[in-house]
Amino acid sequence: MGLQLYTIRDAMEKDVTGTLKSVAKMGYQDLETYGFDPSQVGYYGLRAKDFRTLLKDLGLTTTSGHYDLFKYLNAPEADLLAYVDQCIEGARQLDQKYITWPWLAPEDRGIDKFKLLASKLNLIGERVKKAGLGFAYHNHDFEFIDHGGENGYQIIMKETDPNLVKLQIDLYWVVRNSKKQPADYFREQPGRFVMWHIKDIDRKTRDYTELGNGTIDYTKILPDYRTAGLQYYFLEQGGNFRTGNAMDSIAESAAFFKRKLSKFL
What we know:
Blueprint: E1 2-4, H1 9-14, H2 16-25, E2 30-33, E3 36-37, E4 42-43, E5 46-47, H3 48-57, E6 61-66, H4 77-94, E7 98-101, H5 111-130, E8 134-138, H6 152-159, E9 166-170, H7 171-177, H8 182-188, E10 195-198, E11 200-201, E12 208-209, H9 225-228, E13 232-235, H10 246-261
Parallel strand pairs: 1-2, 2-6, 6-7, 7-8, 8-9, 9-10, 10-13
Antiparallel strand pairs: 3-4, 4-5, 11-12
């Protein structure tokens, strides 16, 4: 059972070791990182090798990281690839399997920028694959905005090489904003959706909520994991924590997932 650490960013900022001990006790086993520091090849104020030691001592692994690749979308190729090489070094030290592109700045969400993005994703994917790692793109809602009959996600799926660029599908955003269901995407490009973000939609606000409190019926999505090509999944909740405490929310989601959903994977 995986967790995207961004969910508990406030707790991670205050106490890395104590927070991760609590995460492990809840039953989480795998983590997805965010906030890579290329200046010291580090995470959460720790050098990568020290962070890996901490995870190992707690019986945890990390198989993917969200890296700030989007900051280099419009940068010279040499600058982009220099940052990619730093990401590769960090991922190797943590024994991560995937480097993930997590975001696009608001000013970079037009069709022309998505086409530029596709070319950059292929470039990065080739570099990362040569290093023996996997590379993936993570979606939000803006990829599904229609631009004259075309949207960004269609461009990414069509203009990137599936052998170089895998997809980390955020199921919350697909269910909430796409005209298609997750299964439609899985059937369109089977085997490409190697990672999933699993979170729920609040019944009233349509914001994030704890698993089991929302409207997404994961019993109808999770069984398609073979078609999708699922390798790793991460529970996540970006905000709207029921008690105001993210640690309470991840405990609640973990308990619901283990009780109701894990049997489908």
